[in-house]
Here is the input.
Amino acid sequence: MLFDHPLPEVIDRAGLDQLVKLLQADGYTVVGPTERDGALVLDELAGGADLPDGIGVETGAGHYRLRERADGAVFNHSAGPQSWKQFVHPPRQRVDAPEPVRRLAFIGVRPCDLAALAILDGVLGAAPYPDDRYLARRDQIFVVAVNCVEPGNTCFCASTGTGPAAEWGYDLVLTEQEGEGGHRFLLGTGSVAGEEILDRLTHRTATGGEIREARRAVDDAAGSMGRSMPETDLRGLLNRARGSEHWEQVANRCLACANCTMVCPTCFCTTVEDATDLEGDNAERWQRWDSCFDPDFSYIHGGAVRKSVGSRYRQWMSHKLSTWHDQFGTSGCVGCGRCIAWCPAGIDITAEAAALAEKERTR
Amino acid sequence: MIQAMRETARPARAEAMVPAAYTVVDHRRETHDTVTLTLLPGRGTALPRFRPGQFTMLSAEGIGEIPVSISGDPDDQHDGRLVQTIREVGAVSAALCRSEAGSEIGVRGPYGHGWRLASALDGDLLVVAGGIGLAPLRPLIRSALGRREHFGDVTLLAGARSYADLLYPLQLDAWARRRDTAVTVTLDRPDPGWTGRVGLITGPLAETAIVPERTTAYLCGPEIMIKVCADALAARGVPPERIQVSLERNMKCGVGWCGHCQLGPHLLCRSGPVCRWDAVADLLDIEEL
Ligand SMILES: Cc1cc2nc3c(=O)[nH]c(=O)nc-3n(C[C@H](O)[C@H](O)[C@H](O)COP(=O)(O)OP(=O)(O)OC[C@H]3O[C@@H](n4cnc5c(N)ncnc54)[C@H](O)[C@@H]3O)c2cc1C
Ligand code: SF4
Ligand code: SF4
Here is the structure.
């Protein structure tokens, strides 16, 4: 953990470039946030210069826009339209042929997304049938996390217990600082591999003032999230709400477009498709992301089980907040806010949870 | 590079989504739309032994893969044989039904929780099957009849739309001739010459004498049939935890990855397809869950 770490180290902006270079020299393909077509996407970085210096984001329900920041901060932007899920659990993969595993280094993993990776580990990596492809990819990943010091309008990880501080699951963790003393990153290690990289980086030891400032910034972040989940037993609330008329009201707004499931860093559902090549000689089996909003998702001979949009929204939200606990022992929501920002109808999972809680209270 | 991940030692094993090649050694037409295949594994591809109520994922190469229950005798698994009964309803099931002796199909599994028989020892068994639902129940019946002395009354109620739709008529006949087994077959639409029962299975169920506290019930068939029969049995005092039902949901993987087979808290490929009624009764009451 950053603040328990005996002595956090400090690197400057050039140190970040050096970090990317070192990882590349060690054979990693380095992936991080970079600007593309008006959004911050996650993609391979040629070098540290591809990181989004001075770019911030403005988010809201159904809203995401880049903005220029007054400072040069690299990591002060909340979750973008993609998540790290796409690298460990790709949108489309062939599952009946061997696949070379790339060594990936993730730079700029936010605490919510670290928690999401841990959740995917529990879903896809656990017994009795661990997904070996997932585990092989996951095994190779070097994680550089960033503590959140500037949460966005759609963020609520403080209320889901998954941020804004990165607690574990990283090799290195950064806390970005601007202002007096220049642009710099406090750096903590979380693994032997992280320590080995640190040894090769140009760094100095953090001052007491820098450490206090970092702690204050992360503490403040917890108090400045744009949203929060209602403080109630969500698991029980969603269980009891199965028969609620509320789902029909959501259905009036929801377009069943499946955006929320695609952007969610923990939504893991897939479908399997078999195909033959044009000659019909070679069969291939592909797995691709699927969504519980697709009417065919629940198809059984005779028709879909979840025909109405309301029943599909209920399935999604109940799975995230309630039945995920039954199946995998945790919540399926890490409070990243992506589903809120990328819902074309501006449907907000925190607002829907609050509405269900309110309905139950006033009944 | 996460420590916990590094420490997980994983034995090499076949890819979970890659089926083992099995050869069709017998193709038996059961009804106008249903076929029973007997499958044998290729060299070195035999899957683990199955238990009654489990299913496999069957692939017709290049067309697709579907969940199908095992309908064979659990006490006859020599050479790794699998017996499965498939009703043709769409692309994949039709292709499987067309697989003649000698052809190859892909098999993964066996998967899921099957029928619990141990908890019924020394008690009465009541088996209620609707249509193709008799297929997953057959291994259970075989298992019980193979250990007949360990059970009290054994009663089988089987329903079908018409005589032409009735599965395993010879097998049913043979069971009916046993003095230690009561078999009632009912048809929704009677054929000329049919002298047996007519109407929904709820009729004979209501007339079957049961001692609720000694009875374990096993139900499979259309969901509405399962619901009505399980509710009726529970109302007559059979403890819900001793009513076992086999449920169907869309399944794309069988191993808990695809998310399609959810029923509330359940992933039916794992905690099902056979569930205790007390674990699912409330869930099936909710529309479109
Ligand atoms: C645990 C389990 C055991 C089953 N056992 C048997 C059995 O012993 N014999 C038998 O004939 N049928 C059984 N079924 C039903 C069988 O899986 C479907 O009839 C089959 O999937 C239809 O596929 P299709 O491509 O031929 O038809 P389509 O109607 O074209 O189906 C398209 C796709 O939808 C999905 N699908 C459709 N119906 C079902 C369904 N009922 N259950 C799950 N997925 C479905 C499949 O992915 C299928 O490929 C079982 C289903 C489950 C879940
Ligand atoms: S449900 Fe929404 S807020 Fe929660 S993890 Fe998924 S995308 Fe993020
Ligand atoms: S909640 Fe929003 S993002 Fe999700 S399916 Fe409905 S309209 Fe699309």
